């Protein structure tokens, strides 16, 4: 709750007029407790899990209209009931694990110093902190993910997430309850090390979940803006990890690919792509000679 009764008091405290964003924030948050504001995370996560994957459902249903060429594993087709069943399982986990975890984790947010007051952070401060959060989460997630692909971690926990060998958007948070708790640590570590404003924290949670949904989409769209982010993995990169399955020792990265490259855990994927390029070139040549078309589905090969 803000320690001001009026905008005039806030103006005197800051020594300047409030920006438009700060005025909106004051009008919205002034009478709400910090706990209430923090619990907005539950609403944001519910909306993201429920709404963001919906366009991908329509794409899956309309593959015959031209979307099939963007499907990474085109031989796999999921019915509407399959996707709805996945959503129900995710919502069950949300109600039983994610929601309660958000409700009881508020003391940790206060302890690390995430603030709710004025002034609001600048756009550059928000971008810098989000960049740090992504880097910290990506590095720690990489090693936890590798652990979960060990014999014990996979059989006891991570195999649930890999039930979808051709992932879909709704399957991004589909996992064993223990995995949901374990992978919450990397997500929280960045804000704990570099605490900022609650708005930055909201953006971090939202962007990380949207990114996870995109990488589990099962589609590699050429117009996706994330393709221009350096070292960004994306749907094609992570789809390979699911395709190889439980024996996968490749593409552990959650967001960026630098850890896989440094530690050599992307060799299978790079070999896979190299062979696919060679097959496509041969198909293109044969297609041109025969006056026909060519198409090489990406799921026809696994790494050796």
UniProtKB/TrEMBL annotation:
Where does the sequence pass through the membrane?
35-58
Q: Which UniProt keywords apply?
A: Membrane, Monooxygenase, Oxidoreductase, Transmembrane, Transmembrane helix
Matches recorded under InterPro entries:
Fatty_acid_hydroxylase, Sterol_Desaturase_Related
Keyword Membrane assigned: yes
Every copy of the Fatty acid hydroxylase domain together lies at 132-265
Q: A GO CC term?
A: membrane
Give the start-end ranges of region Disordered. 284-304
Family to which the UniProt record says this protein belongs: Belongs to the sterol desaturase family.
Its protein name is Methylsterol monooxygenase 1-1
Source organism per entry reads Theobroma cacao
**Gene name, please?**
LOC18606367
């Amino acid at each position: 709750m803000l320690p001001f009764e009026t905008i005039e008091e806030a103006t005197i405290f800051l020594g300047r007029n409030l920006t438009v964003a700060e005025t909106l924030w004051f009008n919205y948050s002034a009478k709400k407790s910090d706990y209430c504001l923090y619990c907005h995370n539950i609403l944001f996560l519910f909306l993201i899990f429920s709404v963001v994957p919906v366009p991908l459902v329509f794409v899956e249903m309309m593959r015959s209209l031209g979307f099939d060429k963007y499907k990474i594993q085109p031989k796999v087709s999921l019915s509407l009931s399959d996707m709805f069943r996945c959503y129900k399982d995710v919502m069950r986990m949300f109600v039983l694990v994610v929601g309660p975890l958000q409700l009881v984790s508020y003391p940790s947010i206060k302890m690390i110093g995430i603030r709710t007051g004025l002034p609001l952070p600048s756009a550059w401060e928000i971008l810098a902190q989000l960049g740090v959060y992504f880097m910290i989460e990506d590095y720690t997630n990489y090693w936890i993910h590798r652990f979960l692909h060990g014999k014990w971690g996979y059989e006891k926990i991570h195999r649930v997430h890999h039930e979808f060998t051709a992932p879909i958007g709704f399957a991004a948070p589909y996992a064993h309850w223990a995995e949901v708790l374990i992978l919450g640590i990397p997500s929280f570590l960045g804000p704990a090390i570099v605490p900022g404003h609650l708005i930055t924290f909201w953006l971090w949670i939202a962007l990380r979940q949207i990114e996870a949904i995109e990488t589990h989409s099962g589609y590699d769209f050429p117009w996706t803006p994330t393709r221009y982010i350096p070292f960004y993995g994306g749907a094609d990169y992570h789809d390979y990890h699911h395709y190889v399955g439980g024996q996968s020792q490749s593409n552990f990265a959650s967001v960026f690919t630098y850890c896989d490259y440094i530690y050599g855990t992307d060799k299978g994927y790079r070999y896979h792509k190299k062979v696919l390029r060679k097959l496509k070139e041969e198909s293109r040549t044969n297609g041109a000679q025969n006056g026909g078309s060519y198409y090489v589905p990406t799921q026809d090969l696994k790494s050796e």
